[in-house]
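Hi all, posting the design record for the shared folder.

TITLE: backbone redesign
STEP: 1 of 1
STRUCTURE INPUT:
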């Protein structure tokens, strides 16, 4: 059953798609028969009385699913450069796994073993573990780390002089540096499962696993400290969790699948992917081009200065349009508006011939400044709550209640301190200077917190922030000469968590998991442990999957391409040491101040339509994949709200959920089929 809690929608839409509890009705619901409701209630409450939290059986199910899904991700994303579930805020492979479990729960366990049926709390636990494991195995994470571990040694030549430039700075215990082992690793036709190969990789695998678990645990502790402010005080909408919440209510309800609009949307999304999937195998059949690769409006702008627009795709993914429907109107509008604003800046630079500023309009720097600005805005609006948290941590204030948190505030704060100590020890052992480590990770956690906040408030379907990282920011502000070769040489190894894109970032997933637990009143005391276990198994499974595939296929033959020049950039930086880049630093300031201006206007004038998060997102690359989808969804949502009102908007929600499910189900079928038959199939979302 679906119900909505919408208030103040025109200014700050807070759309919660939840399902009706078997115990009480809180709002109007979609009617279903008493017989269906009663049977589902009995099944659910028998299990709910026994399994209210993150149970060990749920953790075991999540742990068993992670290796299979890690292999799936690495095969389609890492080897074939297709699928790209981990590039989406709502990962389709996780939703499909969840859907299969829910259908089994409904038609087998609830019917024949009702007292042992899985509960919503257990599904949330499984979802939490799989999202974090997916983020670690993702396009912007271990699909970068694993190739980079051996890149500097395999591709070193007398011409590039990498051996002399930076090999002495690269820690051998974190890299793959034996060329005799790198040969089958990069050329394939071998196996991971030899004593020499396993011994060479086991050390780096364990060190990096420990590193990512500590990093993820610090992010989890930060989330615990800010969660109450964003969830209870500001009542952020968390758009990404709406579909998982609706699917898992009551351990899965037959009534959810009885909605006609849901099946209409499902038919639209699924039908499109069936048609395009068959066209992939039988080109004589028609297809409907929806990918951002299918259309390039930039090709029509051939004369100066308008040819500076460059690549201008026209993506029309139905599932992205549906996801955009759940975004607040001001964000959806701001994303595509500032995307066009970005293109206008490129045209302006060409028209003015700004040769003195060859990197104009410094989009990465603007984006970095904007995200730092969003962090400061989030901290300013949370200042009252953070004062209470500090009072609890340092004074144990009795009026501050943290009993419903997964970890007490004092424990979470201690976790941050201990975690930072471990990170500093790790970096010192790797050869970094003591003074560089705190600012590097402070910048990273500032960006991470801003991303988590934007996901919680606005739920962008994707957020690729290319080149926006601590290393680049410090290189622009203080210069590579001051940073030094030992620190610059470690930055490429850290690019997998700080720099490539942040699309599968762990922190927003953790925050959304905590929100789902709070929303459903589950006992969350073991949820943090489930997430730590998910990250640990996820790291080991991701390493195993891509190492196995690399030795079999050959990393040189895999179109992963995700060194993306980090060692060539390092070569350039070490060959030509520089000081402060005044222009780049200035444009960071421009991005920061413009974000403050947009937030001031938003708070001062209710009619102000531009959201600073739209500027931060669109100044970087990721919105290219979906900008036109957001334009379509914003027009649809505006028309529904203005001409149909809230009642029509409420009725339309199951249709858009169905579109997402339809594309996710059929798209995942084609993806899984490709793994089974070992041949590429239709890719419904290329990123």
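Okay, here is what came back for every position:
SEQUENCE:
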């Amino acid at each position: 059953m679906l119900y909505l809690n919408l208030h103040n929608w025109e200014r700050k839409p807070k759309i919660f798609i939840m399902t009706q509890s078997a115990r009480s009705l809180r709002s109007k619901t979609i009617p279903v028969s008493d017989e269906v409701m009663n049977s589902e209630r009995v099944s659910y409450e028998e299990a709910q009385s026994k399994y209210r939290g993150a149970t060990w059986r749920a953790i075991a199910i999540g742990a068993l699913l992670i290796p299979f899904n890690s292999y799936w991700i690495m095969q389609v994303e890492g080897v074939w450069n297709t699928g790209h579930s981990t590039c989406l805020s709502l990962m389709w492979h996780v939703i499909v796994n969840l859907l299969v479990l829910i259908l089994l729960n409904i038609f087998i366990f609830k019917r024949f073993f009702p007292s042992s049926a899985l509960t919503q709390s257990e599904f949330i636990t499984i979802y939490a573990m799989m999202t974090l494991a997916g983020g670690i195995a993702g396009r912007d994470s271990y699909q970068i780390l694993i190739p980079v571990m051996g890149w500097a040694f395999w591709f070193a030549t007398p011409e590039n002089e990498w051996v002399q430039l930076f090999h002495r700075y690269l820690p051998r215990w974190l890299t793959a540096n034996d060329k005799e082992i790198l040969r089958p690793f990069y050329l394939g036709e071998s196996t991971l499962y030899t004593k020499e190969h396993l011994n060479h990789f086991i050390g780096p695998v364990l060190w990096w696993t420990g590193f990512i678990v500590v990093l993820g645990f610090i992010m989890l502790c930060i989330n615990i400290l800010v969660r109450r402010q964003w969830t209870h005080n500001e009542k952020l909408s968390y758009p990404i969790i709406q579909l998982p919440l609706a699917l898992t209510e009551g351990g899965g309800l037959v009534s959810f699948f009885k909605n006609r609009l849901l099946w209409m949307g499902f038919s639209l999304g699924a039908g499109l992917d069936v048609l395009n999937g068959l066209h992939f195998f039988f080109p004589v059949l028609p297809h409907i081009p929806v990918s951002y690769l299918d259309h390039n409006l930039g090709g029509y702008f051939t004369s100066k200065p308008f040819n500076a627009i460059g690549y201008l795709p026209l993506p029309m993914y139905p599932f992205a349009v549906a996801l955009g429907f759940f975004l607040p109107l001001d964000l959806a509008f701001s994303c595509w508006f500032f995307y066009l604003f970005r293109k206008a800046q490129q045209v302006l630079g060409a028209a003015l011939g700004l040769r003195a500023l060859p990197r104009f309009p410094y989009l990465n720097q603007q984006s970095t400044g904007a995200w730092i600005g969003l962090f400061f805005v989030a901290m300013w609006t949370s200042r009252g709550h953070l004062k209470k948290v500090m009072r609890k941590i340092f004074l144990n204030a009795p009026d501050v209640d943290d009993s419903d948190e997964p970890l007490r505030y004092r424990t979470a704060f201690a976790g941050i301190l201990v975690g930072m100590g471990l990170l500093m020890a790790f970096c010192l052992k790797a050869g970094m200077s003591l003074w560089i480590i705190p600012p590097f990770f402070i910048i990273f956690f500032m960006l991470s917190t801003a991303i988590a906040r934007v996901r919680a408030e606005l739920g962008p379907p994707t957020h690729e922030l290319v080149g926006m990282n601590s290393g680049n920011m410090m290189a622009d502000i203080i210069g590579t000469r001051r940073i030094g070769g030992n620190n610059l040489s470690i930055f490429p190894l850290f690019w997998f968590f700080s720099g490539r894109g942040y699309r599968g970032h762990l922190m927003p997933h953790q925050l959304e998991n905590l929100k789902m637990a709070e929303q459903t009143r589950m006992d969350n005391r073991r949820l943090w442990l489930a997430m730590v276990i998910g990250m640990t198994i996820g790291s080991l499974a991701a390493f195993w999957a891509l190492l196995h595939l690399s030795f079999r296929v050959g990393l040189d033959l895999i179109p992963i391409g995700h060194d993306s020049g980090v060692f060539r950039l390092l070569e350039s930086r070490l060959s030509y040491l520089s000081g402060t880049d005044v222009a780049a630093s200035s444009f960071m300031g421009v991005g920061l101040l413009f974000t403050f201006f947009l937030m001031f206007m938003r708070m001062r004038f209710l009619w102000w339509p531009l959201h600073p998060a739209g500027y931060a997102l669109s100044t970087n690359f990721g919105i290219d994949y979906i900008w036109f989808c957001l334009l379509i969804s914003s027009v649809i949502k505006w028309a529904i709200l203005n001409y149909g009102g809230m009642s029509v908007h409420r009725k339309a929600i199951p249709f858009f959920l169905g579109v997402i499910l339809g594309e996710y189900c059929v798209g995942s079928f084609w993806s899984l089929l490709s793994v089974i038959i070992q041949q590429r199939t239709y890719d419904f979302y290329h990123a």
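COMMENT: The chain has one domain: 47-286+358-608+671-677.
Let me know if anyone wants the other runs.
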